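Journal club prep — side note

Before the paper discussion, L.F. wants everyone to see what a predicted structure for a comparable chain looks like in C-alpha cell form. Sequence:
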Amino acid sequence: MRVCILTEYFHPDTTGGTGTVLSELAQYLAARYSDLEIDVISSTNVYRQGPKRLPRYEVWEGVTIRRLRTPKSNRPSTALRLAAGAVFTLGVIRRLFVLPPYDRVLVVTNPPSLPFAAWLLRRLRRTPYIYLVHDLYPDLAIALGALPRQGKLARWFAAAQKTWLHGARTTVVLGRCMRDHLATRYGVPARQIIVAPNWSDPNRFLPEVSSRFRESLGLTGIVALYAGNLGKYADLDTILDAAKRLTVTSPEMTVVIVGEGAMRNHVSSRIRAERIANVRLLPMVPAADYPDLLAGADISLITTMPGSTGLGVPSKFYNILASGRPTVALVSPESEVALVLAEAACGVQVDHGDSVHLSAALSALANSPADRATLGHNAREVFLRRYTLPQVADLFYKTLRA
C-alpha cells in the first residue's frame, strides 16, 4: 500500500509539534509494517531551529521525503500565514498530480488550506484520505479572536472545513471532546471519527526523583511547573493570581513558568509590577533537556484558553503523564485532559479563571506528599496503558488499511 503524508513540517523537526509527531509515526510505521510504502510531501522549511533550508529530496528511515521550496508559514501576521499556507497547498497539489497514484493520503490541519489538496485528489483520482485534526480552523482562530465568528471569511472557511471533513474516509482526532465538537458543529457521523491521542516516550520521560534543572536554580520546597508556549490561548493570568495567594497559604511553593510566546512580556511585567516573588519566569529549554525539566517538578500545570474545548488537546499532557507527576489543569470539565484526570485519578481539574480553587488545589497537594505520590503513580500507569507510540501507531495502521 502506497501512503502519502501531507504536512508542511516533518523530519528533522524536533519542536514537539505536528512535524515531530508525524515523523515519529511515519518512522514507526515504515519499520513495523513491510506492506506500507510511505512518502511525505513537506517543505524545505524548519519550524524553529535548524538549517535554513532542508534538501528537496531525502530517504530517511525507509520514508521518502519530497520537499517543496515555499514561504515559511509561521509568521506573526494571520494574512501572511494564510497566504504562505496557500502557496504550500498549491505546490502539494501540483506534486500529487505528477506522482504515481497513492492508495491512501494522510493530511493534517496545518496549514489550514492543506486539506483541500487531499479533497481535490479524492475528487479527481478517487484517492481516499485520512484527515488528522490537530488544530481545527476556523474554530481556533475564532476562539483566539483573530476572526469574527460571523465574518465572511469565517463562514466561508467553516463551509470549506465541513466539505473536507465529510469528504474524508476517516477523521482522526486527539480527544473525545474534539470528536463531540465535530459531530455537533459539522455534523460528522460518529462512525467516521476515530480518537487517536498523541503519545510520549516511556524511556525518555521517566518518573525521576532528581533534576539537574532544579538543582542548578537552587529550587527548594514544592515546585509547580508550567512549561510550554506562552501564547494567548494559555490562561496564564489565573496562574499568576493563584501564585499571589500561595505566598500566604503555601509560602514554600515556587511556581516556575518556562517558555516563549506572545504573552511572555505580559507575564514578566505582572511579576515585576505586582512583586510576585514566588514565580520564576525562565526561557524555553532545549528539547534534550525537557525530560529533566519535567523531573524537576512536584506538580505540573496545564492550561488552555476558555472556549477552546474540542479544538485540540495539549501534547505536553502525555509527557507529564510519562514523567509520573500529578497534573493540575485549568481546563473545562468536558475536555479530554479533564476526562483522563478523572478516569485515572492522576490530577485535578480547575475551571478557567478560578484562581481561588487553583491555589487551593496546589496548596492541598503541597501539603500531602502521599497524595502527590499516588496521583503521580496513577499518571505513569495510565500512560503506559494508553499513550505510547506502538499503541497509537497500530491504530493508525488499522485506519489506513480499513
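L.F.'s comment for the group: The radius of gyration is 21 Å. Keep this in mind when we get to the figures.
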